[in-house]
Amino acid sequence: MARNQEKAQSMLNRYLQAKNDDLKGPKQKRPYLATECRDLNEADKWRQQILREIGKKVMEIQNAGLGEHRIRDLNDDINKLIREKGHWERRIVELGGPDYSKAAPKITDSRGQEVAELTGKGAGYRYFGAAKNLPGVKELFEVEAPKQVRKTRFQMHKAIDPDYYGFRDEEDGLLERVEADAERSMRAQAILEWAEKEHERAAAGGR
């Protein structure tokens, strides 16, 4: 009896879903080219759809157990969707809408690195989730620290010239002028202090 009720409920659900789909009309497919869209609201709707698809695939690619081929396919799909998102965002601007490319942060991997030049995948190609640990990819993100070469004592002495010891400091006359100005300032300050002390001494003696 319970089994028959479940079947009846399932049939009713399918009937209601089919009726609802008929009322909505045929499911609209996203245009292949963003330039085919002439309506701003439609363009924004397709952009939102792409964002949902990107989010879904980014979540899926976190699973390292999917296998190398599936992970590579997912990573390619995400990059294609990101490029498509850019096309729709430019189309939205052309239709008089906001410029999402300026307002939204760039989509990058966890390190914010791009390795397009090394992979030949084209400008802006990025790796997400488990794709960063694939053979041949992980090495691209391992930046070797520059080696510091220590100079020998001979090399350090070779770089020392008379300027190091200050032998040519007075050749341009600049140091001499600076010292003369400083000396005059110090002498004037000393005379002023002496005059003030003499004045105080004279005032004290006259009391």
TrEMBL record:
<dbReference type="Pfam" id="PF06246">
    <property type="entry name" value="Isy1"/>
</dbReference>
<protein>
    <recommendedName>
        <fullName>Pre-mRNA-splicing factor ISY1</fullName>
    </recommendedName>
</protein>
<dbReference type="InterPro" id="IPR029012">
    <property type="entry name" value="Helix_hairpin_bin_sf"/>
</dbReference>
<dbReference type="InterPro" id="IPR009360">
    <property type="entry name" value="Isy1"/>
</dbReference>
<keyword id="KW-0539">Nucleus</keyword>
<dbReference type="GO" id="GO:0005634">
    <property type="term" value="C:nucleus"/>
</dbReference>
<dbReference type="GO" id="GO:0000350">
    <property type="term" value="P:generation of catalytic spliceosome for second transesterification step"/>
</dbReference>
<feature type="region of interest" description="Disordered">
    <location>
        <begin position="1"/>
        <end position="30"/>
    </location>
</feature>
<comment type="similarity">
    <text>Belongs to the ISY1 family.</text>
</comment>
<dbReference type="InterPro" id="IPR037200">
    <property type="entry name" value="Isy1_sf"/>
</dbReference>
